[in-house]
């Protein structure tokens, strides 16, 4: 990825497209091994997990089913509060199913923590999480995330499904924004 592909709104590439794909392949091999002989239901959290999901299902050499949830967390500014509302619920009944939640990024972990207790109350056979990215603050909340792509510094990142004001989701890499984007 050379600089001209980044455009003026990006500051730097944190994780290149090749690195993302290679890591996803590694996660897929681990998931295939762990779910060997089991029916796995991938549950994506809209909208950010869209790109991770699309690449992960094509990388996985096991049969999977897919479902989606949309949740919104109430909070002031950019920090999530842990108070969550379901905007779109699952179509599937997950009782006795092996559920693997697919996430883009875990920051405070509050949203995911709420989601996991909500899903756990529905009686799945198992419940695990795969996330492409995790930030250091996530360590403050006791959630066990089985599959983590990259632990990243506490910076705001975009690309690969992650947005700033709904922009930049289509970038094939993870990058940080130039300061002028925030101030304009
Ligand atoms: P948490 O409850 O873990 O703090 O919130 C996670 C959600 O916050 C993510 O699903 C994502 O929507 C948003 N988020 C957290 N960190 C970032 C970031 O660095 N970039 C972007 N684009 N969104 C983020
Ligand atoms: Mg997310
Ligand atoms: Mg967002």
Automatic annotation (TrEMBL):
The keyword Nucleotide-binding applies. It catalyses: GMP + diphosphate = guanine + 5-phospho-alpha-D-ribose 1-diphosphate; IMP + diphosphate = hypoxanthine + 5-phospho-alpha-D-ribose 1-diphosphate. Its EC number is 2.4.2.8. Its main location: cytoplasm. It is found in: Cytoplasm. CDD domains: PRTases_typeI. The keyword Transferase applies. Coiled coil: none annotated. GO terms for molecular function: glycosyltransferase activity. Pfam families: Pribosyltran. Its cofactor is Mg(2+). Pathway: Purine metabolism; GMP biosynthesis via salvage pathway; GMP from guanine: step 1/1; Purine metabolism; IMP biosynthesis via salvage pathway; IMP from hypoxanthine: step 1/1. Residues 18-164 form the Phosphoribosyltransferase domain. PANTHER family: HYPOXANTHINE PHOSPHORIBOSYLTRANSFERASE (PTHR43340:SF1), HYPOXANTHINE-GUANINE PHOSPHORIBOSYLTRANSFERASE (PTHR43340). Belongs to the purine/pyrimidine phosphoribosyltransferase family. This is Hypoxanthine phosphoribosyltransferase. The lineage of its organism: Bacteria, Bacillati, Actinomycetota, Actinomycetes, Catenulisporales.
């Amino acid at each position: 990825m050379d600089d001209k592909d980044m455009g003026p709104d990006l500051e730097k590439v944190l994780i290149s497209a090749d690195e993302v794909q290679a890591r996803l392949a590694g996660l897929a091999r681990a998931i295939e091994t762990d779910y060997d002989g089991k029916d796995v239901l991938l549950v994506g959290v809209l909208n950010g997990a869209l790109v991770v999901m699309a690449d992960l299902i094509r990388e996985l050499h096991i049969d999977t089913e897919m479902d989606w949830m949309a949740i919104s967390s109430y909070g002031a500014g950019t920090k999530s509060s842990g108070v969550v509302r379901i905007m779109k619920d699952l179509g599937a009944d997950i009782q006795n199913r092996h559920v693997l939640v697919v996430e883009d990024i875990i920051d405070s972990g509050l949203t995911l923590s709420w989601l996991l207790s909500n899903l756990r109350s529905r009686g799945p056979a198992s419940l695990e999480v795969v996330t492409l990215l995790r930030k250091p603050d996530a360590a403050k909340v006791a959630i066990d995330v089985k599959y983590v792509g990259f632990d990243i510094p506490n910076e705001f990142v975009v690309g690969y499904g992650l947005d700033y004001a709904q922009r930049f989701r289509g970038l094939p890499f993870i990058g940080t924004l130039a300061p002028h984007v925030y101030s304009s």
